Amino acid sequence: MASKLNPTFSEELKKYGSVNFNACYNCGTCTAVCSLSTTDISFPREMVRLSALGLEDEIKKSLKPWECYYCGECTTHCPQTANPGELMMSLRRWLTAKYDWTGLSGLFYKYLPAFLTAMVLVFAGVLFFANSVNWELERLLHLGHMFERTAIATVFVVIFIPNLLRMWYFTVVKAGVKVPFKTYFTALNDLFVHMFTQKRARDCDGNHFRWLEHMILVFAYLALLFTTVFLNWFSTENLFVIVLGYLESAFIFIITADFVKDRIQKKQTLTKNSKPSDWFFVIWLMLMGLTAFFVRLFIDFNILETSKWLYIIHLTVLVQWALIIVPFGKWTHFLYRSFAMYFAKIKSVKK
Fold it and tell me: Does residue 110 sit in the same domain as residue 84?
């Protein structure tokens, strides 16, 4: 059956941040400069044409938007300023909305007031919770720690597993891919390599320093998550764990502060068209590292009891991050991109 054309698709993509991609006149410059292009793959021109035609089903079957790490070469060299790199970013946002069974990702991407309302409601919920326990610091810390563990498990089971299954259905099942079942196990190496090393970013982007920053940030974030949730960083007296937590939170703050600086200066193609989801992701991650660092510092100086507001700020950032940004914001790109590399490996195996 032929794929259905959607003539209004370009208007839909504008809500996800696309910039002028209809100006493309198919010259092929983007394909010529893209390091991902081969004699068999027209990258990213194929996605530009599919988007222009509104072939939504074909786009949903594709993993190519996730294979792009937005080095910016295609946009820089485009003679029509069609911004193909920004189109790929917009397609990633659009695909995130399509994978999400709740529909909240699409709502938050397209309508900033809806996102801000959700953030305000979470803040109000944190204040209500703090008041319900009479602002007792020990209970705040204990229940905050319990929330972290519960939120991780709930988001993973309720949001991520169903969404990843939808992604698999769109990109593997509907694409008609049939491979031996064992391939799903033998290809796992690609999942973990790309998840933890961001290897494609190094291969795609000539800026190896930025790739190194991303890799350190991934490890620092995951390590701080483990240190805080499973080693109970805010309550432990183990010196090694305490110092480890300080280092992890410091790395997160320093690297994300550098990312914020780049977005403010807009010197790189990647940062010239930053959308609210980009800003909130990097700023809230920076605030996570900063507030966690000072909460632990105040604990060690025994002054957190008289500065409960600091923990309330940290808890608010944490809850907003866990309930909104992680399951429905740009954080999901980290997860979907890793699984895209995994599914691409599976699709490369012929039965």
Answer: no
Whether residues 152 and 134 fall in one domain:
yes
Structural domain contains residue 126: yes
Is residue 134 domain-shared with residue 266, that is, in the same domain?
yes
In a domain, 2, yes or no: no
- For 4, residues 6+ apart whose C-beta sits below 8 A from its C-beta are 55, 56, 57
- pLDDT tens digits in sequence order for the chain, 351 residues long: 456 788 889 999 999 998 888 888 888 898 888 888 877 777 888 898 999 899 999 999 999 999 888 888 888 888 888 888 899 999 999 999 999 999 999 999 999 999 999 999 999 999 999 999 999 999 999 999 999 999 999 999 999 999 999 999 999 999 999 899 999 999 999 899 888 887 777 766 666 788 888 889 999 999 999 999 999 999 999 999 999 999 999 999 999 999 999 899 888 877 888 899 999 999 999 999 999 999 999 999 999 999 999 999 999 999 999 999 999 999 999 999 999 999 999 998 865
Residue 1 lies in a domain: no
The whole-angstrom separation of Cα 181 and Cα 184 is 6
Residue where a domain terminates, one of 98, 122, 156: 98
Q: Is 92 a member of any domain?
A: yes
DSSP state of 171: I
Structural domain count, the chain: 2
Contact indicator for 317, 165 with CB cutoff of 8 Å? no
Residue with tokens 């944490």: 318
11, 17 Cβ separation under 8 angstroms? no
The last residue of one of the domains, among 52, 68, 98, is 98
Q: Do 125 and 232 fall into the same domain?
A: yes
Task: Determine phi and psi for 245, rounding to 5 degrees.
Answer: -65, -40
Pairwise CA distance, residues 85 & 116, whole Å: 27
26 φ/ψ sector (left φ>0, alpha ψ -120 to 50, else beta) = left
